[in-house]
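Subject: Sanity check before I submit

Could someone independently write out the structure tokens for this chain? I want to compare against mine line by line before I put it in a report. The sequence has 526 residues.
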Amino acid sequence: MKKIKIIIGVVSIFSFASLTSAKEFYYFHNGIQIPLLINKDSVCVYREINNKDGQKTFSAETISKTQNEKLENESITSVEYIIQEREGKQVKMSNMFYVQLFDPINDVEVLRNTADKTNTIVNGSIPNMPDWYELVVNHSKINNSLEMSNYFYETGLFKNVDPGFIFDFSHSSACVTDSNFTSRQWGFTAINACDAWEFTKGSPNIKIAIIDAAIYTSHREFNSTIFVNFYNTTTHDSIPDVEYSLHGTNVCGIIAADHNHAQIAGVAPNCKIMPISYTTQNKNVVAANLASGISWAVNHGADVINCSWGDHNGQYQYLHSNILESAIQNALITGRNGKGCTIVFASGNEGANQVDYPAYVFSDILTVGSISSNNSFPYFSSYDENIDIVAPGTEIYTTAYSSNPNMQYIENLGTSFSAPFVSGLAGLILSINPNLTQKGVADIIESSTQKVGNYLYTLHSNRPNGLWNDSVGYGLVDAHAAVVEAIYRLMNITGFVLLCNSGQYGLQNLQLERLYIGHMKQIYSR
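---
Independent answer below. Compare away.
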């Protein structure tokens, strides 16, 4: 056994560097030494706050390396490690550890003698487990529960030990670990994104083009995002535009923010993003440049094209662009080798009974208005007979462009930020079923909506996908129901109902079938 020299006494000043210096960290599990990765930037400090009736209680505080001076305090009883677990998960250590005796009767004295030598407190046996004892680290030279438990085991005097890991066994309502997902991204709950992500978070085979001001692609939320086929509609080259913008970065975050334990999540993080930028020098854009960008997207394999721009309240009532409309029509018809690109436009932010141009030019365009968190129609969302659906558009917390890492997120509002919810959803649908036409994608999105709010939804002869309203269209998009419908259509093609000699039925289809049946029950129970 390894011998450890114990120095008895009160230690009041600790060094952060010595606590987290380069050495091997481990604990024992059933006699096997298990390596650990220690967080070298933070520790958990315990202080005694009460000693009433012989019972000591302690407070805990997490401090960072920059707060090293806080370790210089005689009230500190122990400084505990924080374990760096897989996928960014951190597990704090308590100031307690547990020791199992070989003989619950005769070894108690051995335990107390060892505890006295190391300045640890024996709190007594664990209820209903008489051979396990709880000990508390108290001003020991071996200043934390991890190394203290290792010392007790390595003496050979005890059967087993358990360091004081503070586990989080609670059920989390969040389906991702990004810190602001639950508290600030209400829109993802509203569209039932978590349930959709059980099937897919997108596929790198699907490209979503974002025609907007330049995206800050170096944002931490885009570390795993695959950006392809950059195009600058002003300079007409494929060099990434570094004239970064707030608006384009906002839009991209809603679609593509990685599920990476940072702050936010995107609708379709695994799809590829095609950044197509236009100038931000002024608000005036030549329509031919935008037409060129749309055609670039089509020619480079875009499946979905997000357009969070328009003419602001139909101000150009008599002025249309033939070249822009030609590019849009070509994308709808010939994109994706004849299946057609799904084109998503924001309805506009003028709050008027007139959606922006060119969102209304072709019926196959998906025109998206906004809805608020209480399912009310926000004042700014433009609408008319061309509105197709709505998506979250208020209090949208998303990525921002700033050189200051503390200012790289922002809360915004507008139909510009409703459209990317739908573009991301289209990416999920095509990731499941890439054989769908653009009309098939639109039909799924429109027919699977939630009829939210106090609106009168009625049948209309030119609206074949269900009940419709001229303020909110078919209603709020439902990512879960839409993805389930995409699976159903995929199965229907490959033999969901009948297996026969002439058909192909792969393992993936069987797995999707089981998921599909369970999720259909979930949808109908809402």
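---
OP: Matches mine. For the report I'm noting this point. The first strand starts at residue 25 and ends at 29.
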